[in-house]
Amino acid sequence: MMKTAFAAAFAALASANSVPIYGYYPGFVQGGNKLEISIEMFYDSICTDSAAQNQVMNDLMGTMWHGSPVFDQVSLKITYFALPYHYHSYQVTELFPYFMDLCVTSPNTCLFNAYKDYCFDNALSVLALTNMGRNDFITYWTTQVANEFGLDQATLESVYFTSSPYDVDGSSRDFFKYASSNGVFGTPTAFVNGVMLDSVPRTVNMWLLTLEQVYQSQFK
Length: 220
Description:
The protein has helices at residues 2-16, 48-61, 70-73, 89-93, 95-105, 112-121, 123-127, 134-149, 153-158, 168-181, 204-219, and strands at 28-30, 37-43, 64-65, 68-69, 74-80, 189-192, 195-196. By secondary structure, the chain is of the alpha+beta class. The chain has one domain (22-219): Glutaredoxin, CATH 3.40.30. Helix 2 (48-61) crosses helix 11 (204-219).
């Protein structure tokens, strides 16, 4: 009887909590985090606004702040929220889990950031391919990426399908669900220390002012 009651209570608790709780961070984490300040960016892989913000973040990470580059001082987390009206965004996003896995197995040749920037550099070209179907686009895109990074095109194309050891579809869905569960509805969206910013800083100086405010509140 107790066992049945416990099972019923557990089932009720599980059904009451619809927010996904992950055993891993559904995205890419980098940075030295010396000051224990977390920046979390949500991008769409071919969003032009995200592309502009990405350039700001790249410049910010190399900027000196409190004695060393910002990259050394913070934790930078990046995950993807594929916007449904950006045609092919989901297929572009599906390669990120593959590149994340390669960063673990071959850290000296980690291509996550290079692929991130490549997607943004080619965003307008991809957005224009509205007459190309999913499978044709996958062949086209993996050919472009393979040529850019000296990779095997057939291997890249294979990761999209169920026989692949890389669950790129499942991981990409995790990206989307994680973003949705945090109230993200557009890109770019930024969080600092777990708090969503009302407005994403659009320049390096605006970011430095935001980080300095956080720093002063933590280390005063």
